[in-house]
Amino acid sequence: MTVAKLNLDIKPLSVPVGSGVDFGAEVYNIDIENLSDADFEQLKTALYQKQVLVLKGQAGLSPKAQFELTKRFDPGADTYGHGKTLDAKRSVLHPDLKTIPHQSQVQVIGNGYFSEYEGLQNITLKHPHHRKFHKHPIPEAEDVDFTRFFRWHIDAALYDLDPPRVTSLMAVCVPHGRRQTVRYDDGTNDELNVPLGTTAFVSGEHMYNILSDADKEFVRTSKIEYAPHPYIWMTNARSLPDGLGLYSDNLELSESELPPVDPAKIKTLPMCWKNPLTGALALQIHPSAIRKIHLRSGVVIDDLAEVRRIVHRLQRPAIAPRFVYAHDWREGDLVLFHNRGVLHSVVGAFSSDEKRLMRQCNMAGSEAVEGPDL
Fold first, then answer.
1. CA distance 317 to 210
2. Distance between CA atoms of 348 and 149, rounded to whole angstroms?
3. Which of 70, 171, 186, 359 can bridge 333 by disulfide, Cβ–Cβ 3.0-4.6 Å?
4. Cβ count near 262 (within 10 Å)
5. Is the pTM of this model over 0.90?
6. How many CA atoms lie within 13 A of 340 on its CB side?
7. Strand ranges (DSSP E) for 199-280?
């Protein structure tokens, strides 16, 4: 019997001395346009084991090939992960993304003016700045040197559609040279020095593993109910300084102010999601979109401030600086991440002359997330 030769060169991420990051890998010698089934299986196995893969040297990759690779992880998926929520002008997501006309599952994000890109004409991209989402932003005079995690999240509509399995991010044009310091500003004095415009990742599996036994039991047996149309619901609310959830100032939109709500489309998901390859559990909660906690006993915690306090306490230890992987983007990097196993955040503030163009692709899952065996 002939055994297929696996050609991918997969290496652990290089992280600073003392880092607690125990996930991620770089992938070399990969031809995405001509990826064999055997090489794809190797890639898929690596992704579910390592959670984040950086595929180097992909500068010529087309949006179509990016879509096809992303879809290969979930062949039954086809619709962009947020569906049509971007059509709603009040959505907090709307200003940040533009859809490639000939590949609707692929979005363009970035910073600066571009006269043309993949059928988009005269576009001005704006990198999300924490000033527009955080209640207490960093003073403008300090904004060049210091920044924040914009919003820790999972890529997911969290209403009607199931969360994508995998997201791909492609660096087309990125500035280099400058670094910034992320300030947590939560009383801990935590800071993290990061490359300009990094995407920050933390492991949901690590987030679960470092919990106490009592908290592990709690998260294994509890579920989160998300707000209907959550990205419209939260439009007036403002973030905590660590980007891990919202202040409870009663600024969320009422149901009467939202688009029509179908109760059957409201998502109530396990707090822990199971890795499809290893069976490991990840604490996967989008902290800004949460509304209620459903306990195994049948009790529902519906005090929004209390729900937010509980979730923040569970998640905050895992975003400590030593556990964050801050990717240093280079043109041609294609990052694949297991969206059901990590949280991530936009980071940074660009000047007007710092141009950046990225492509994002994910598709709503063809199957629901799998929770713990109870």
1. 8
2. 8
3. 171
4. 10
5. yes
6. 31
7. 199-203, 223-226, 268-270, 272-274
User: What is the rounded CA–CA span in Å between residue 191 and residue 186?
Assistant: 10
CB neighbourhood size of 192 (10 A): 21
Alpha-helix residue ranges (DSSP H) falling in 210-270: 213-221, 230-233
Give the residue from 303, 271, 202, 208 showing the smallest Cα distance to 243.
Answer: 202
**Strand-by-strand arrangement of the 268-270 sheet:** 268-270, 223-226, 290-294, 300-301
Dig out the tokens for 10 from the structure.
């997969």
Q: Mean pLDDT of residues grouped by 10 in the chain (374 residues)?
A: 60 91 95 93 97 96 96 94 69 82 93 94 93 95 94 97 98 91 97 96 98 98 97 96 98 95 97 98 98 98 98 98 97 98 95 92 96 92
The label of the residue with tokens 């000939």 reads 102
Residue owning tokens 């005090």? 303
Q: For the chain, how far is it from start to end, CA to CA, in angstroms?
A: 42
Which residues of 118-207 form beta strands (DSSP E)?
Answer: 120-125, 146-147, 166-173, 179-183, 191-195, 199-203
Tokens of 259: 């688009």
Rounded distance between C-alpha atoms, residue 183 and residue 192, angstroms: 7
Give CA angle at 236 (151, 141), nearest 5°.
60
**Cα–chain-centroid distance for residue 308?**
19
The DSSP secondary-structure symbol of 260 reads: P
Which one-letter amino acid corresponds to residue 69? L
Q: Which residue has the tokens 């049948």?
A: 298
Instruction: Give dist(CA 259, CA 271) in Å, integer.
Output: 26
Give the Cα separation of 357 and 76 in Å (integer).
Answer: 29
Q: Are 347 and 182 in contact (CB under 8 A)?
A: yes
Give dist(CA 236, CA 108) in Å, integer: 25
- How far apart are the C-alpha atoms of 313 and 199, rounded to whole Å? 23
